[in-house]
Write a structure and sequence with these properties.
- The protein folds into two domains: about 10-90, Orthogonal Bundle (Rna Polymerase Sigma Factor, Chain: A); about 100-195, Arc Repressor Mutant, subunit A (Orthogonal Bundle), CATH 1.10.10.
- Helices cover about 70% and strands about 0% of the residues.
- It has ten helices and no strands.
């Protein structure tokens, strides 16, 4: 269900007329939304603020294209996701990580998962599970990683992902299927690379 926008038509009109104060207010209002999307999809160590600035520049340059009926925040979210995806596309795909790259806590987490206590492991270490998942997702093609994040981590429906990425349902489903298969392969390779500490 679409929430109403906090961004008013009056604000957008003022920005069109060149009001810098309103433009700054708009950036301050939307910054939490944009930085959350960037942090969700961009690997650690990347220049988050640079990407946010790029997203806001695109937003202002395309302001005339916004016509509703969706909330303005939804429109900006699409720009943020697509800009982040473009950035990820230009990065080289990561090689499969080895256990040597994992910390002790991550190795023990995997060991508990292997031994059948996955639910307890995730429940007791949600941050650790998310970090490990993010490291595995970094080994996927950016398009696959983004679809998995949206569908499985953000729990969005296929229809919502189609709306965000401007894709057809078949493309979302096929990409998700391929991504899950590739994730399984990455995890299998990781498990083969060495023996977990017992």
């Amino acid at each position: 269900m679409e929430t109403s926008s906090k961004v008013t038509a009056e604000m957008l009109t003022a920005i069109h007329k060149g009001c810098q104060t309103t433009a700054r207010e708009l950036v301050e209002m939307l910054y939490p939304l944009v930085i959350a999307i960037v942090r969700r999809h961009l690997p650690r160590g990347e220049a988050e603020e640079d990407l946010c600035q790029e997203i806001f520049l695109k937003m202002f340059s395309r302001l005339g294209q916004y016509s509703g009926p969706r909330a303005f925040e939804h429109w900006v979210s699409k720009i943020a996701l697509n800009t982040t995806y473009d950035r990820l596309r230009h990065r080289e795909r990561r090689k499969v990580m080895s256990y040597a790259e994992l910390g002790t806590n991550e190795m023990h987490f995997l060991h508990r998962s292997e031994s059948g206590s996955t639910a307890r492991s995730i429940e007791g270490s949600p941050g650790l599970a998310r970090d490990l998942i993010n490291r595995l997702l970094a080994g996927l093609h950016p398009r696959e990683a983004m679809v998995i994040r949206l569908l499985d981590l953000d729990e969005k429906s296929v229809a919502e992902v189609c709306d965000i990425l401007d894709w057809k349902p078949s493309r979302v489903r096929v990409t998700a299927m391929r991504a899950r298969r590739n994730l399984e392969s990455l995890l299998t390779e990781l498990e083969k690379s060495t023996t977990l500490p017992r």
